[in-house]
């Protein structure tokens, strides 16, 4: 069972058995969990006539005893306090309480004590404590995502919250999948190790919950650190889903177009979901050139339908048109949505000269040749059309690749960047190197440490690449290939506890502390389609694009700096 259907099933079970008119009450996180798997029209079919947030419903006093209240909340102390206040003065006829993760006994007692009027019909745990953006890709949408970059001593209490949320999310995924995994983690990362150990401890403490039928091979949970591959979130993207997120931004499968221009009200926010949009499902991993052709085909098909609708001559034609009208409207909305997205992205590509920039980025990520790379980056820093953020990313990609080989040229690039880009934050590139430089990483990011990787890169070079803009493969792809071949090294990815796994697992969940990218989820989908005998699921603390990755870096640098001053 994949993630989207697991969460859909939970929502279905919450709403199905409660007959009559309902209000669905969510919190700021469960609203995302529900919205990516259930559309508003589907909620209406389940007689949900009102969806409210728990904090705003707390402010209202109006009685609605004709409605049954279905609450779906994270089991936080804040939400329990809200519930206690609302139960002490109930506004709804019935209360059905569902929590997205394990409740503590004390929380259950608090709720029971508050329910003096006995309006609570049921309290249940439904383990949908993660946002299933795609069938094999989930995120936890953590606002404080930058904490993974900071050393533990800097802010211990917030770091503990960060780790707790990660452990809750991972635990819920395995409860939803009804599995108990063996756990491995990235050796160089303190935070990956900590989350791995705390997850293992949770399995011990809650062993009754995770007592599923033993499988021949336990699934593998591999916890890695974003800093092992800081290159992927810095690159421009050229496949549809990843490109929309990089250039415009996707949040919970929705794209807010208000940030890039003026659009009619019904087009200001559009949904991009592989579950609800057949064109997107077929094209989400296609490259930009092919998308243009496929959209043209979709527009042609739509024009054919529109033409036949103009040809209404008899009553039968009219009846047929009315019957088909909802489908026609849906088609019209879909066509205009994809045309708008591709048109806007084409403008951005042209304005920021991204084809030029991206060619150099891909060279920096995939090919050696320091002299040529230095020249290419210098030329782009001098190019007036290149934006500040693109200059910063180019220098970062150069620094990550050649930090050891060319310190003198690196200083020259730092100085040029500081003089060309007023927005350049002094020390951000150095901070990235300090946090995610060669000495801090697990794995062979550039394929130049390990003999097998060097040979593979040479073979790729000889074969040539299909598309210069999409030649980069994330480190995650290598990691998954190593798992398929049974070659994931124990020294790099140790086991938690005295576990050891012989043979290949059939299911692998890879969790990236610091966030995933859509380029990585594409690699996962492609490997899952290749019938390797292993099913991969990707998850992380956030879904990154370069803007978010740099924002996290800046926030962490700011905290580290103010801490250094205090000390």
From TrEMBL:
Keywords for this protein: Membrane, Protein transport, Transport
Keyword Ligase: no
Protein name: Vacuolar protein sorting-associated protein 45 homolog isoform X2
Keyword Transport belongs to the record: yes
Main subcellular location: membrane
Protein family: Belongs to the STXBP/unc-18/SEC1 family.
Gene3D superfamilies tied to this protein: 1.25.40.60, 3.40.50.1910, 3.40.50.2060, Syntaxin Binding Protein 1, Chain A, domain 2
Provenance organism: Gossypium hirsutum (Upland cotton)
Pfam families: Sec1
Subcellular location(s) of the protein: Endomembrane system
Gene: LOC107951986
A GO term from the CC aspect: bounding membrane of organelle
InterPro entries, per the entry: Sec-1-like_dom1, Sec-1-like_dom3a, Sec1-like, Sec1-like_dom2, Sec1-like_sf
Record GO biological process: intracellular protein transport; regulation of vesicle fusion; vesicle-mediated transport
